[in-house]
Specification:
303 residues, 19 strands, single chain, six-stranded antiparallel barrel, mainly beta
Length: 303
Amino acid sequence: MNRSITGALAALALSGATLVSVGASSATAATEAGQRPDAAAPVTADSPAHGKGKPKPRPKAVTFEGTVALSNCSGAVVRLPGSADRDPALVMSNGHCLGGGFPAPGEVVVDRPSSRTFTLLDARAGDAGTVRATKVAYATMTDTDVSLYEVDATYAEIKQRFGVKPLALAAERPKAGTAISVVSGYWKKQYTCSIDGFVHELREGRWSWKDSVRYTPACQTIGGTSGSPVVDTATGAVVAVNNTGNESGGRCTDNNPCEVDESGQVTVRKGINYAQQSYQITRCVADGNQVDLSLPGCTLPKP
């Protein structure tokens, strides 16, 4: 989870990842960001079958519109299925991207004042403007790794001022084999691969996450990509938030998460990267884009 910008720059030179780069990054720090793992061993994707003669869904053009750059991470302005144009917009990133250090295991942040700023990107990864948080609506590193900031503008105001639309947050769990793009506002880069499968428990140092997304090896994310939206290329909707990867083959240590199955068996996949599913968030936000952890069906950790 924690990789210096120097390490990230070195990793970029070595990376063989499939990515799209637009523009140059002027970021100066990513000390609470993701990682660039070493070359990954081959992993077979569990691709969904298609009927005879049935064409595969035509991929949508994934752009940078609605993504944001934080001081140390990436993120995106996201809109939930029940959000209205007049609602205050929400920015999604990782819990480990919060200022002031990582939330402790079991810690949940709700409605904490914040004045953090985000650089908003347009479709071509140009800087469209700046939005400012009014509060951390929700953040945790327990069971998942997510932060939601409420900002000082509505979706309608962001569209009017900057000509930028938010990314739609999918309400359904993604499937193995789904083609995805990890879109980093920090680096102004896209990493394309597929969902290889799901991890019962992903354990890293003091933290553990449930039902995590495992990427196929092509998504070699680097420092600064933490918090990037993971976009389903067939629908254009966000299905997860990028958060970590095993850098050096370590077993369940910081920057070297391990997979733990239902029986407790541990598997280490050096060079493989992961994300946390985001559909659960849609069950925990009420009218007006207000986080309400008491809603029926809300399974996000509570304070």
